[in-house]
C-alpha cells in the first residue's frame, strides 16, 4: 500500500510549489531599493561638523561609494557574482549611501560651499615658490644663538 507522500508526482508537485513560493521571497530581497539606505546610518553624526570637516567627509564617502560600486560590479562578472556582491558589499554600500545622505543634508543646512582648488602654475610660467620653512635644530632643544642673527 502506497501512501500519498510516497507517490513521485506528489513529491514533484510539492517541490514545484515550494520553489514557486520561495522565488518571490528571494526576489523581494534582491529588489530592495536604496530608499532605506538611512536605516544603517546615524542621523546625528554630522550635527556638530563644520564645513571643512563636512567637505573632507563628503569626499571620503564619495570615494568609498565608488570603491564599493566597483567591487560590486567586479564581483557580478564572476559565477554567482550577483549573490557574492549582495552578500559581501551590499550592506556596506547601503550604510555609506545613508551616511552620504546625512552628510549632504548637514552640508546644505550649514550653507557650506566647496573650497576652490589650489591654483596651478601655467605651463611655461614660473612655479610658485613655497614659503620659507624654518630650519630644524640639530639638537632638538632651544637654540643658544641670539635671535637677531649676530654672532657673539
UniProtKB/TrEMBL annotation:
It comes from Bradyrhizobium aeschynomenes. This is Twin-arginine translocation pathway signal. The keyword Signal applies. Residues 115-152 are annotated as: Disordered. The lineage of its organism: Bacteria, Pseudomonadati, Pseudomonadota, Alphaproteobacteria, Hyphomicrobiales. Residues 1-27 form the signal peptide. Residues 120-131 have a biased composition (Low complexity). Keywords: Signal.
